[in-house]
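Handoff note, outgoing to incoming analyst
You'll be picking up this chain. Sequence as last confirmed:
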Amino acid sequence: MKIAVASGKGGTGKTTIAVNLAYTVALLGEKVQYLDCDVEEPNGQFFLKPEIVSTSRVNVEVPAVDLDKCTGCGRCGRICQFSAIVCIGEHNVLTFEQLCHSCGGCMLVCPADAIKPRPLSIGDIEFGKAGAVNFVQGKLYIGHVRTPSLIKEVKKHIKKDRLAIIDVPPGTSCPVVEAVKGADFVLLVTEPTPFGLHDLKLAVDLVRKMNLPFAVVINRYDIGNDKVEKYCRAENIDICLKLPDDRRIAEIYSTGRMIVDVLGEYRKDFSELYEYVKSVMAWNDDKRGLRVRGKNNS
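Most recent structure output, in case you need it:
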């Protein structure tokens, strides 16, 4: 099962939920994997403190133009939807690596075979162990913008024989779409503030359009107001966990420790969160089975 932990905005406690959920599931004796797909700023490592055992560099292909072969026809620029390659004049072609999506279209349409792929390193994937938690994280190189490409490579290392907890980038942009794609369930972490509610609505619209089952986690539920809870009730959205504005949690967080490791009473909350997700998934499986059986019997 793949659980994505996402948020409409940064600072809601998304990584706090993700790492403590992964750690709790491991304490329950189940196989669990934590994948940090917040590749521009991965910080799950500061809490899980994994021992990194290997690193893999991630390359993408970008076009390299042989100007001696180029005829200046301009087909490469016309097919590119992202203006990553532009033909200027008769024998001058400009390429913009950061705009390239590595589709290969420019190479396919070049009649002179003047464009070949060139590897561009965009980041690293690190693998390790954090106790019983299998740990994977992506690190995008500074100055690079190919975030979805790196996230896609990180997700290729999901192990099918264990629960995968995917720490998603904040927001609702392309990296988030890539990170939650294919998830079995999405936990949307929010806070009871005007900004929290605004961005939660955006996140809800996203996962609904992607047809992904989800529920909401409210962090620091006893600050702000009750508008997030009213919104969830009106939209028939489950609130599966509410964490209080506990000063002890903030102190533990600031020292890079795990909530469930220091404050044992919260271990029950995260255990129940996991049981909730499993029960929803089992119910959804039953519904799908009924639909299939009904169709076959008709």
